[in-house]
Known about the structure:
With 232 residues, the chain is α+β, with helices and mostly antiparallel strands. It folds into 2 domains: 141 residues, no CATH class; 81 residues. The longest helix is centred in the middle third of the chain and has 15 residues. The chain is elongated and about 60 Å long. The chain starts with a helix and ends with a helix.
Amino acid sequence: MEDLIKTFLEVINFSTVQNIPEGFFGNGTGLGCGNSDYSYGRGNGKGEGVGTGDIIGRANIIGIGSEYNQISENNLNGVLSVDGRKIYIIDEIPTAIDNIKGSIAIGKILQADMSWKQCYIARVGNSFAHGETSHEAFKDATAKDLVDMPFVVKIKRFKERFPSLDDTAQVSEFYNWHNTLTGSCKMGRKHWLNEHGYNMDTDISTVRNFLEQTKNDYGSNAITKVLELYNC
């Protein structure tokens, strides 16, 4: 099981600065450290990290590593495991893993009062998400992964999802894709819905309509690049 967890949590070329949430105990060492009564340190893999915290439990961690996310021995007030469960920091959340199948894990979140909350954990690329269902976790991890992708990869993914301009999808999917491709704000996307009389929850549209209707709006350069993939 340990090898499965290591593979599941392995992150390639990790280098980041994280703001650690409030509400957990201890001083992190090794991978990262947060000097606070209510904070935990987070690093990723075998690397170096420094961090500071205050009494409300915030720590800023600089971690560089390439192996896997594991809470250090002095975190959570010296607790490495609770009820016999080993604790890992996944997406900044203290988590125990019970089982793994492919890109989905079943586990529990360690809450501030040291109680457990059942959850699913999904991995897509180097992105992780927790959810009350496997579908919810996978959906959120996919969205995170898309946000972090280079633009050329995003438009390739769009073309893979919609090979033809005549492919159809719920308007809500195009609504989300516009944000992924262009970084558009929610108000701007709602304006697009209103302009064309769309009901996001029930209406269906085509790729062609989506691209033609947005090619002169915010993010037009990105939409133009997408159109070029369809030789338009």
